[in-house]
């Protein structure tokens, strides 16, 4: 049973940066595709970015491409999300998710394990 804990959220001004971390435990981290999703008030949960089990492949949503970077350290059982040039529309709760699969899915339904979320607020 994979347990995920996010950290690193906060309040930042437009154009600022944040780095989110997601620490995993309870499973073999390298067996899982990892992803970040986000959910703004009144909105559906949306895919942000995913990374393959060995970190060689990534998939970014168009809304964050060029601004966000996902990475993982399998030795530390941790996945990261570096967010640069943040915009007010990036404001949301950000969730880390794990999927014991081979390919990266953009659907939340594919992911079996979720963290509790971390709030990111970007002020204008």
N-to-C terminal Cα separation, in Å?
A: 40 Å
Give the C-alpha Rg.
Answer: 13 Å
- SS-based class: mainly beta
For the largest beta-sheet, the strand count, sense and barrel status come to: 7 strands, mixed
Give the averaged pLDDT, no decimals. Answer: 97
Estimated share of beta-strand residues: over 45%
Number of strands: 11
Bin the helical content. under 10%
What is the global morphology? globular
- Return the string of H and E elements: EEEEEEEEEEE
Number of helices: 0
Low-confidence stretches: none
Report on the architecture of this protein.
- The chain is mainly β and 124 residues long.
- Helices cover 0% and strands 49% of the residues.
- The strands form 2 sheets. Strands 2, 4, 5, 6, 9, 10 and 11 form a 7-stranded mixed beta sheet that branches. It has a 4-stranded antiparallel beta sheet with strand order 1-3-8-7, with no helix packed on it.
- The mean pLDDT is 97.
